[in-house]
Design brief:
8 strands, 19 helices
């Protein structure tokens, strides 16, 4: 067994352990450390037994075991824990050594850490890793970014441990400098939030409008997974609906309807607000989780607040067909919003993100992997300057075919009192995006009326601002303008 390791991994929770096993299976020798040393011993004598995995009880010993430049990957909980561990590493690192953060850190923290370590002659990489515990073991989608000089030493390790798709390519690529990698992973998670909520709304409509049994819904999701909606999330929804407990009852019916979240969806929404990007569908998916967590309040409200008393009397198969098309269109809109946020961040931070490459590495390993990511990859390869995914010829054609189905689904949900915030948001965004003249002219007049915020005119060039003395009692002094 080699005594010089290719990389060190700190943090042996399920993601850390599985990533180490993945690395070792690809021919790498890995040194491991965990603050709770019993986890190191248990891993070395358990899942890591007989493998090129070496356990250490101190940071100093782990780093001493690594080939130069030393590469230490942290699989730790985001936040202060990461900063504290970096400080523990620093006394033992030399110029050119590389520290990698494989957790779900906020990209602002990654930007700061890159600058901090580069000042000390070290390299820092914030690496998004998506795929859950199975992906970590068998091949996740990996999104590294940070100190550019580190990539030549990390590429030989990170690429082969990533997911490999049917065309033989690996789902790992350099994202860009600074916090680019963690920003891309954050947006991935935001899109994931939207995808999951859209599927949940489809399930809700099937269950409470069409009164379908769990077995019937399982069959629908099985069929959908064979078509254009084929994806990991549709696949696991199919399997969840088929799962029965010891008594033969669907487990899904026993699960409390209060959703949790770890923060990346919220961070995505905050970034969109900061950058002035209408990320409405993903925002609604975050708020839907917040509302679900208010379980006791909702139960109390259900006893006193009234909704429509209507029974579905239409054609069941027609609505199911509309629901399939509506889900596809809403997913496209969610991705369009997410990629628009990536574009804005790339401009703001000078990251030069490659959108086709991002879509390509999301095709395997990650939670949002789906059949139509191939089409997104093609759209950005054909036109790297595509302003919005909805305008790509392939998706424009799909949108034209599906927009009426989305209207049918939203109308059915509304008339039956079923909340469908993400489907509704998708439709509202679509109609707003395709409207040449919105009522914001009135909004600008209101702002100018009460705050002298000024407005632009349709008969003057953009960038020229005007003020009206609406009451005859105001003056010519105006407020400063801002866009976000």
């Amino acid at each position: 067994m080699s005594t010089i390791s290719n990389i060190g991994v700190a943090g042996l929770a399920v993601m850390g352990e599985n990533l180490v096993l993945n690395m070792e299976s690809k021919g790498f020798t890995v040194s491991v450390f965990n603050r709770t040393t019993s986890k190191v011993d248990n891993f070395i004598s358990g899942g890591g037994a007989g493998k090129n995995i070496i356990g250490f009880h101190t940071i100093k010993e782990m780093i001493a075991s690594l080939e130069r430049p030393r590469k230490v990957m942290m699989m730790l909980k985001a936040g202060k824990v990461v900063d504290d561990f970096i400080e523990q590493l620093l006394p033992y690192l030399e110029q050119g050594d590389i520290v990698i953060d494989g957790g779900n850190s906020n990209y602002h923290d990654t930007q700061r850490r890159v600058a901090y370590l580069e000042e000390k002659g070290l390299l820092f990489v914030g690496t998004g890793v998506s795929g859950g515990e199975e992906g970590a073991l068998k091949g996740p989608s990996i999104m590294p970014g940070g100190s550019v000089a580190a990539w030549k030493d990390l590429e030989p390790i990170l690429v082969p441990i990533s997911a490999k798709v049917d065309d033989g390519t690996f789902c790992c690529s350099w994202m860009g400098k600074g916090g680019a990698g963690h920003f891309v992973k954050m947006v991935h998670n935001g899109i994931e939030y939207g995808d999951m909520q859209l599927i949940c709304e489809s399930y809700h409509i099937m269950k409470d409008v069409l009164k379908m049994s769990v077995d019937e819904m399982h069959q629908v999701f099985s069929r959908w997974n064979e078509g254009e909606l084929s994806s990991y999330l549709i696949e696991i929804t199919r399997d969840i609906l088929a799962y029965k407990d010891e008594g033969g009852n669907p487990v899904i019916d026993s699960i409390l309807d209060a959703a949790g979240q770890k923060g990346t969806g919220k961070w995505t929404v905050i970034a969109a607000l900061d950058m002035g990007i209408p990320l409405s569908l993903i925002s609604e998916s975050v708020f839907a989780r917040c509302l679900s967590s208010q379980k006791e309040e909702r139960v109390a409200a259900s006893r006193s607040l009234q909704g429509p008393e209507s029974e579905f009397s239409g054609d069941k198969e027609e609505l199911l067909s509309a629901l399939e098309k509506a889900l596809y269109l809403a997913k496209v809109i969610s991705y369009a919003q997410g990629f628009r946020l990536l574009q804005e961040a790339s401009t703001d931070y000078g990251w030069e993100l490659n959108y086709g490459e991002i879509a390509r590495i999301w095709r395997g390993g990650c939670i949002i992997r789906s059949a139509f990511l191939d089409k997104i990859t093609e759209a950005y390869h054909e036109n790297p300057n595509l302003s919005n995914l909805l305008l790509a010829p392939f998706f424009k054609n799909k949108v034209d075919q599906a927009q009426q189905s989305l209207r049918t689904v939203v109308a059915s949900a509304v008339s039956n009192g079923i909340p469908a915030p993400c489907h509704s948001s998708a439709l509202n965004f679509y109609d707003g995006f395709r409207t040449a003249r919105l009522p914001a002219n009135l909004l600008q007049a209101q702002r100018d009326f009460f705050g002298a915020h000024t407005y632009e005119r349709i008969d003057k060039p953009r960038g020229e601002f005007f003020h009206t003395n609406w009451t005859g009692e105001g003056g010519n002094t105006t407020s400063s303008a801002y866009s976000r």
